[in-house]
Specification:
The structure is a single chain. Helix content is 43%, strand content 14%. The chain has 749 residues and is an alpha/beta fold. Strands 4, 5, 8, 9, 10, 11, 12, 13, 14 and 15 form a 10-stranded mixed sheet that branches. The protein has a 6-stranded parallel sheet with strand order 18-17-16-19-20-21, with helices on both faces. Strands 1-2-3 form a 3-stranded antiparallel sheet. β10 and β11 form a beta hairpin.
Length: 749
């Protein structure tokens, strides 16, 4: 179809055909046809609503700002160098108040503000340049890859690509968002599939005692940079899936992340009762029946959505076990066409790849057998599986009737390629799941690894971007070539140190303002609110991540007296902490409250800051400005970890247990390592690792930071930063990660 965009005037659906330069009626469109491309620029589903929304938004803008109506509905602007700044510089106050949502921001711009912006010649030049850059990127042709005969469908329960789209809780979602962005950068034909949560993940507040309080905010879906997928008559595309013996109705939304369309399933529709509508109410809902419904909607409904939209994926990539039922839905389609059961399962298996992200039990949930069969009886019947066979697919040992079923065993059984997310995690996964594959030796278990990487343009600070642009040459950010990164060694240490100082100052300015706001909301005394003692020249440590107990935040305060000497003494340091504990994780909440008690000590009152309501924006600022990034997981429970990678790209140095990515990243010259050897006695392991942490701070980290030349530059510190950039730069980018998937995981042998 050659129709470029669809507009709806009142109730009449029309299409604009630029080739004929006139408005034409749009005939009934069949969504059964297979689409030729999933590139956002030409992907037709959702185009009608996008066009209508852009037209409405453009009508609210003065002529010279109208190009931003097009830009606002594709997140490609968010990782262009000047993208966020263009919106911000129109009105910094309104930009922050809008949650950096460009659609809401532009919709709420006062006429006087727009008129002022239209008088700023330089700003208008930047607006036009941004619009051209986005359009040029979307106009690039796809780059098909050998062995991949069609688009990749990437399924995940969460996606974190920008704070204004609250579909994520932590590392899994941010990793998924980075994959979408990197696929866009590489012009890889890929489409995302997820859920549109009406209230996202919880927001966090801490009370005066450091106790976490959770609350949820409803998302105004019509104010998001999203479009509802509609039929030619303007009505929404509506599908159903049978869960718990009843039909659950859902509609489809589309969000464009550069060239990649993300299809989001939404059960908040009038046809459902209140319980059913809550299926897409909150991410990681505590009610287990609701979570089962979420997994059923994502897996079964996701495949049905792709079918309805005419997308025939060559590869279905299940990112963690939540969408595992997608594989059975693929098999059910074949069985419905008369294909024998075993052949149908094998056909599904040939198209599915699976990434497991955690060895922690909470990430590999199991359920009562009766709950599983009640939730998914319709799917099992359509595939032709009785209860025993269905449950057997979902168990490590199919013959163990006492074992509770889960999604991870199902995903492992019905995928042709399986991978962990670091070298060590691959080893742990092979040992963990060898019983499922009937292998005596873990080395024979067919699980490989693709170490995670991070989308560098998203997380690189402006000072480091400018520095590396000046010294590494054009295209360095997309290069996993070690020779490209060797050029880091030519950077004068004075320039490197100046960039680090600027990034730290930016972070301190942000945290001062943010923490004063947090303290005001907590009801702290005014004197305490004003007395934030952060110093832009002081060694700054960061610890920010999901506050599960295995992350061991409590080690920071394991020896309060020693911690007080190191933090509150001379020359001292400052510690920034951020993170959320799941609402049901009371032990995780306690670790945060205990840290609050530590920061109440006089010597540390202003040198430890807990930054509330951790999100993508806070994460980006912390990894940009902290000098040292701390990671203290209980080995081997950290599958990968990516916050440390982001810190490394920004010139931060790692002080980390040798787990996850750091086990393969550390070379003895590019940071500091705590062995973190496994111990049957967790308390003994905590004491040993905490002492090693304090020892490294006291004997190596603090002295090296303060070892300065006559110009105040810590030469040895800067050399260690260079070692980290040279060793980690080629290995831990999303470019290298996606290359691994494209070359080793996605192709059919």
């Amino acid at each position: 179809m050659h129709v470029a965009c669809v507009l709806r005037h009142d109730d009449h659906l029309v299409a604009h055909d630029p080739a004929r330069a006139r408005t034409v009626s749009l005939p009934g469109m069949s969504m059964d046809a297979v689409v030729e491309t999933v590139s956002a620029a030409s992907f037709e589903p959702g185009a009608a609503d996008f066009a209508r929304r852009k037209a409405v938004l453009a009508e609210r803008l003065v002529p010279r700002l109208k190009p931003l109506a097009e830009v606002a509905y594709n997140y490609r602007w968010s990782w262009l160098p000047d993208g966020p700044a263009v919106f911000r510089d129109i009105s910094p106050f309104r930009w922050e108040r809008s949650g950096r949502n460009p659609v809401r921001f532009l919709s709420e711009l006062w006429p006087t503000t727009q008129a002022e912006a239209e008088q700023d010649t330089r700003l208008l030049e930047r607006v036009d340049a941004l619009a051209r850059a986005v359009a040029a990127d979307l106009a690039r042709p796809d780059r098909p890859r050998p062995g991949i005969t069609g688009p990749v469908a990437f399924f995940c329960s969460e996606f974190g690509f920008h704070p204004s789209m609250p579909l994520y809780s932590g590392g899994l979602g941010v990793l998924a968002g980075d994959i979408l962005k990197e696929a866009s950068d590489q012009a890889l034909p890929l489409i995302g599939v997820g859920l549109l949560y009406g209230r996202g993940y919880f927001r966090q507040r801490l009370d005066l005692e450091g106790r976490q309080q959770e609350y949820w905010l409803a998302t105004d879906k019509h104010a998001l940079p999203a479009a509802r997928i509609t039929r030619p008559d303007g009505s929404p595309v509506v599908l159903t899936v049978n869960l718990f013996g009843a039909e659950l109705t859902f509609q489809l939304w589309r969000v464009d992340v550069g060239r990649v369309p993300l299809i989001l399933l939404d059960a908040d529709v009038p046809a459902n009762d209140q319980v059913q509508r809550w299926t897409t109410g909150r991410l990681y809902e505590g009610n287990r029946a609701i979570r089962l419904a979420q997994y059923g909607l994502l897996g079964i409904g996701g495949i049905r959505a792709l079918r309805e939209l005419g997308v025939e994926p060559a590869v279905v990539h299940m990112n963690e076990g939540h969408p595992a039922l997608a594989a059975l839905e693929l098999a059910a389609e074949q069985v419905g066409k008369g294909v024998p059961l075993e052949d149908a399962l094998e056909a599904a298996r040939r198209r599915v790849v699976f990434t497991t992200h955690t060895p922690v039990a909470a990430g590999n949930e199991t359920y009562a057998a009766d709950d599983f069969t009640a939730a998914f009886a319709d799917l099992a019947a359509r595939v032709g599986l009785d209860d025993d066979r269905f449950l057997g697919l979902c168990r490590t040992d199919p013959d163990d009737g006492g074992e509770q079923p889960g999604m991870t065993p199902l995903a492992l059984r019905l995928s042709r390629k399986r991978n962990g997310v670091s070298r060590l995690h691959g080893e742990v996964s092979r040992q963990m799941w060898k019983r499922l594959f009937g292998e005596a030796e873990a080395v024979d278990v067919p699980i490989t690894h693709v170490t995670n990487g991070v989308h560098v343009p998203t997380f690189l600070s402006e000072p480091m971007r400018h520095l590396l642009d000046a010294h590494l040459g054009e295209g360095w950010m997309a290069s996993p070539d070690p020779q490209t990164w060797e050029a880091v060694r030519t950077i004068p240490n004075e320039e490197l140190w100046a960039a680090r100082n600027e990034a730290r100052r930016d972070l301190v300015d942000y945290v001062r303002a943010k923490n004063q706001q947090d303290r005001l909301l907590r009801g702290e005394e005014i004197g305490y609110i004003r007395a934030i003692g952060l110093d832009p020249d002081v060694l700054t440590l960061g610890f920010a991540r999901r506050l599960a107990t295995y992350k061991r935040l409590h080690l920071l305060a394991h020896d309060p007296e020693r911690a007080e000497r190191l933090i509150g003494g001379e020359p001292g340091l400052q510690l920034l902490v951020a993170g959320k504990a799941h609402p049901s994780d009371h032990a995780g909440k306690d670790t945060l409250r205990n840290l609050f008690e530590l920061k109440r000590r006089n010597a540390m009152a202003q040198r430890i800051v807990v930054v509330e309501d951790y999100d993508l924006d806070i994460a980006r600022r912390l990894v940009a400005g902290c000098d040292v990034w701390i990671n203290l997981p209980r080995k081997p429970l950290e599958a990968s970890g990516t916050s440390g990678m982001k810190s490394a790209f920004n010139g931060g140095l790692q002080l980390s247990v040798l787990d996850g990515w750091w086990e393969e990243g550390y070379d003895g010259t590019n940071g500091w390592a705590i062995p973190g050897d496994e111990d049957a006695d967790p308390a003994a392991a905590d004491t040993r690792d905490a002492n090693r942490f304090y020892d490294l701070l006291e004997s190596e980290v603090i002295p090296l930071f303060h070892e300065r030349d006559a110009n105040g530059v810590p030469q040895a510190w800067c050399e260690r930063i260079k070692n980290a950039l040279v060793s980690c730069g080629p290995e831990f980018s999303a470019t290298r990660m996606l290359d691994d998937y494209v070359e080793r995981i996605y192709p059919v042998a």
